Write a sequence for this structure.
């Protein structure tokens, strides 16, 4: 039986979408003041077909909340043509085709009270000199979800491979990032939480002066705007000294990847902690994990390694087996979005892919409720 509006409002596993995330205590937090704890989900045919179907099953997203006790998913989208570290390109022919999957995952997340961090994960301008794809990506996606209160945007994954001290607004990476922020993301999404600022592969220097004195002024915002945060990754010798020095300058920060030793990453360690996530927990900073894209079960790695380690050390982030929270009244458009999608998924066990391709992304089947004159096609 399909999920009905009545069931959506009364079933304790479902709830109205989250309100917009907030900046509090120097990091991104949920609308009720909890730090973000998130898992990675890759949306690309080139990684694994399992990743395409996993997020379409709303029960898997319930498991993220109930089994992992996480409240967010970093949805990593691959550019249709860019190549990253020798991995195959995405097999999606167009961004609109990819949006068929993104719409579903985002709506399912909203239906179960999870946040989404939409990440452009393969940065063309660093790897092959192209700047066309990422601008078109955000011109498509930024307006698409700008009113979805549970969605954040991470402009690009690891666009800058080095450290910024001495950088100026005339630097090529800075100019490109400023253009992306001002003209292709913030332009379309004035109220969305944006993660930006030339996220480094490793954090071994104090980025604070650069981010405050060069980057933010060039983009036309201040870090206390409540709508901007800086993502960083704990690879290649990242030190807590650099993290804390940057944080102390008043730049809101969030770790958007944290690896697992058990998956072969021996370089992601902070202050001797086995998991970077533990350092983030102990310092009250929001974080996402990162696990291998070919895992048969998306929940396997954190369930097998992170949660037992957390429990044994007394730093688990939950107090009961079920997370419950009151939700404020959600905007009608958000409810339309998640209800319509949940009904499509639950009732049919499949999604109507063709329409999302034929309309070139102007509408998708999940956005039809915003126009009552559009009817679902069989």
């Amino acid at each position: 039986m399909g999920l009905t509006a009545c069931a959506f409002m009364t079933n304790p596993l479902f709830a109205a979408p989250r309100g917009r995330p907030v900046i509090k205590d120097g990091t991104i937090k949920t609308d009720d003041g909890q730090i973000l704890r998130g898992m990675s989900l890759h949306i690309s045919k080139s990684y694994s077909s399992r990743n395409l179907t996993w997020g379409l099953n709303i029960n898997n997203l319930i498991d993220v909340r109930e089994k992992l006790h996480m409240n967010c998913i970093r949805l990593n989208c691959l550019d249709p043509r860019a190549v990253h570290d020798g991995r195959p390109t995405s097999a999606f022919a167009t961004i609109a085709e990819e949006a068929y999957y993104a719409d579903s995952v985002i709506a399912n997340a909203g239906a179960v009270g999870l946040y989404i961090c939409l990440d452009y994960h393969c940065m063309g301008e660093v790897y092959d000199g192209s700047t066309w794809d990422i601008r078109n990506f955000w011109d498509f996606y930024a307006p698409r979800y700008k009113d979805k209160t549970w969605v954040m945007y991470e402009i690009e994954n690891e666009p800058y491979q080095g450290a910024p001290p001495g950088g100026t607004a005339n630097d090529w990476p800075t100019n490109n990032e400023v253009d992306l922020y001002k003209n292709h993301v913030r332009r379309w999404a004035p109220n969305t939480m944006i993660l930006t600022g030339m996220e480094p592969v490793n954090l071994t220097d104090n980025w604070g002066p650069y981010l405050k004195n060069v980057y933010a002024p060039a983009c036309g915002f201040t870090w206390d705007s409540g709508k901007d945060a800086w993502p960083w990754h704990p690879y290649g010798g990242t030190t807590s000294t650099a993290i804390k020095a940057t944080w102390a300058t008043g730049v809101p920060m969030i770790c958007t990847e944290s690896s697992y030793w058990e998956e072969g990453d021996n370089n992601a360690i902070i202050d001797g902690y086995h998991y970077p996530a533990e350092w983030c927990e102990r310092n009250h900073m929001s974080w996402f994990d990162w696990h291998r894209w070919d895992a048969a079960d998306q929940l396997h790695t954190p369930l097998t390694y992170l949660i037992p380690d957390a429990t044994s050390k007394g730093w688990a982030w939950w107090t009961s087996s079920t997370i419950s929270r009151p939700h404020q009244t959600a905007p009608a458009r958000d409810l339309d979005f998640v209800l319509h999608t949940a009904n499509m998924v639950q009732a049919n066990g499949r999604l109507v892919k063709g329409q999302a391709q034929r309309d070139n992304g102007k509408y998708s089947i999940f956005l039809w409720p915003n126009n009552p004159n559009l009817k679902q096609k069989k």
